[in-house]
Design goal:
alpha/beta, 8-stranded parallel β-barrel, two-stranded antiparallel ribbon
Amino acid sequence: MTNPCIICVAITGSVPRKEHNPAVPITIEEQVESTHEAFEAGASIAHCHVRLEDGTPTSDPERFARLCEGLRRHCPGMIVQLSTGGRSGTGRERGAMLALRPDMASLSVGSNNFPTRVYENSPELVDWLASEMIAHGVKPEIEAFDLSHIFQAVKMAGDGRLKGPLHIQFVMGVENAMPVDREVFDFYLRTVRRLAPDATWCGAGIARNQIVLNEWSIAAGGHTRTGLEDNIRIDRDTLAPSNAALVKRAVELCEKYRRPVATWRQAREILGLRNSLP
């Protein structure tokens, strides 16, 4: 295959795991440094959360603004994708940072179970987040935790609540949500190709399944996500030393399947994003 593969790096999650792997970046400065290393290794999208100094997740727009400023200065051209996930805020505060006009933002269009709680995304909140993304020119990444989320995203694009073409990420391996299953993955892909043939897609696997989804997605011609948000280990016994190390592992899979790694310019073109540099 000759189509470039976009590698997204999820640099730090909203779950306080610093004590489990000291490589997980917490402060804005740590996040910028870690992302820069991942950018140099081949990542062209940075998926971002922010935290308070004690590690508590937050939706504070001021912290997102500082992070965006640092990433644009030190990773010129890299696509900045901010999280509107529910673990660091409630209600409309989850979308307060959209006014910063990041290149992309995550969007979950339905609810599902997480390990210890319900990840609630009410129709009213989903519609509001989607409308804010249109208003501020932000491209959503649809987080498909369930097959119904693909159908809902296609419906929203059809009636104008989302601006296409869609970019859909298959999230597999979250406890109590969709497990990692090859037949389900293949059905997801066929469903996207049938319902939204102009959509781009990506695969994200959680914990030890990160490398599984990396390989499935790269081999199938899609894009992929890696990083310490989803997985803190290289293997069962070895902690990942950095986000860059996980990106390099995805790059090796691209080489295995003869997929060129997308540059930031190629990634922006593939996703229909404006260029941030001349």
